[in-house]
Amino acid sequence: MSNDHPEKIRYTYTMSPDARLHTAHGVWGGINHQGELELNFYHESNALPENTECLVAPDGSVGPEMLSQADMEVQRLTRHIHSRILLNYDTARVLLEWLEERIAYLEMEEGEGQGFFGGNRSSGLEQ
Fold first, then answer.
1. Mean pLDDT, to the nearest integer, of 1-5?
2. Which of 50, 69, 71, 97 sees the fewest Cβ atoms within 10 Å?
3. DSSP code of residue 60
4. Spatial CB neighbours of 53, under 8 Å, sequence gap ≥ 6
5. Contacts (Cβ under 8 Å, ≥6 apart) of 121
6. Higher pLDDT, residue 115 or 51
7. Rounded to an integer, what distance in angstroms lies between the CA atom of residue 76 and that of residue 70?
8. What tens digit of pLDDT does each residue of 63-109 get?
9. 65 forms bridges with which residues in the sheet?
10. Closest to 47 measured CA to CA, from 64, 72, 15, 12
11. How far apart are CA 112 and CA 121, in angstroms?
12. Is 111 left (phi over 0), alpha (psi -120 to 50) or beta?
């Protein structure tokens, strides 16, 4: 009995010149109305203040920049969403298995929860 499929498949990878590496500090998303997982990856940075002020001395010299009282009272962060991904169920399962394999390897190599650089990190996963 002959097979109607090849015995082997070789994948070749090419990189788009537009491809960019992005840091992901977290992900926001959930299941959309089509039953797909929607992931919005972001990185965080300190938010820039809306404005700052400097006092000018009588001799005309300018003092250091100061934040407004409101900006000093609250730590402000900006979450920059840089990638939006939709995964169907089957692809999400494959991704989950892939991640579990890599995480198991990291835990085996460096001890559970420590990673290559040590220390526990928060998940950054939100819904």
1. 70
2. 69
3. S
4. 65, 66, 68
5. 115
6. 51
7. 10
8. 888 777 777 777 788 999 999 999 999 999 999 999 999 999 998 88
9. 54
10. 72
11. 12
12. left
**Which pLDDT score is estimated for 30?**
95
Q: How far is 46 from 70, CA to CA, in rounded Å?
A: 15
Give the length of the chain.
127
Above 90 in pLDDT, residue 60? Answer: no
For tokens 């537009």, name the residue.
18
**How far is Cα 92 from Cα 125, in angstroms, rounded to an integer?**
15
**Nearest 10 degrees: CA dihedral of 81, 84, 90, 93?**
-10
Tokens of 34: 């089509």
What is the reported pLDDT for 85?
95
Which residues lie below 8 Å from residue 125, measured CB to CB, with a gap of 6+? 26, 27
| 76 vs 114, residue with greater confidence | 76
Is the pTM above the cut of 0.70? no
